[in-house]
Structure prediction request, 232 residues.
Amino acid sequence: MSSTSEKTYGSRVGNAEKMLGALQSFGDYAPRHDNASISVLNDLIIDIRTRNTEVASNKQSFSLAVESRRQYYDKGADSIKNRLAPINATVKTVYGRQSKEAADTAALIAKMRGANIKATKPAEESVSQSYQSYNSKIQFFSDLIVNLDNFGSDYDPTDARITVGELRTLHDNALQANVRVMDAYSRLVMVNANRVSSYAALTETAARIKDGVAAQYGFHSPQYRLIRGLSI
Prediction:
């Protein structure tokens, strides 16, 4: 689903439309089988145009889901990443820098910061690795929230963004954002698979049509020369 393959998809359907126009211009094209007819080719082109639109739409949805996840975890002003330092500082203020509470908190924050987040592109391995990396990060965040909650009334930050209640809400939103990325990717895979099938049918039909034109008009006919070089 790279930009190169998208250009190839566009070129192939463009050539199919050229073939359709050529067949219509012949006036007397009469294939021996319906699976090489003008109407079949036309229907396939219409179907593929729809498939291409579906893929483009789902690629955008996937991209937006990835960006939303980044906002919750790392990129946004109120992301998990940007709340870790204030949490760490608050615990140190309450219990002291050398306390066990501060050490445990710092250890969890270090694990979260060290979680290996893969760059996400619409490729199965990359998406799966990224999903698992974000899952690890949210699990560390969940553990951190449990620790803070166990501190009871001692943990009473002045920054409302890092209260236990606010952190739980952020945790839930971030978790769902990760799930939405996988959902969007799954839909993208399905619509792209449908497109691949449609293009395979188009290629097969185009080959039949070329054979049919050669049989009807001859290999050296202007009709056959007009379509033989179209890559579909």
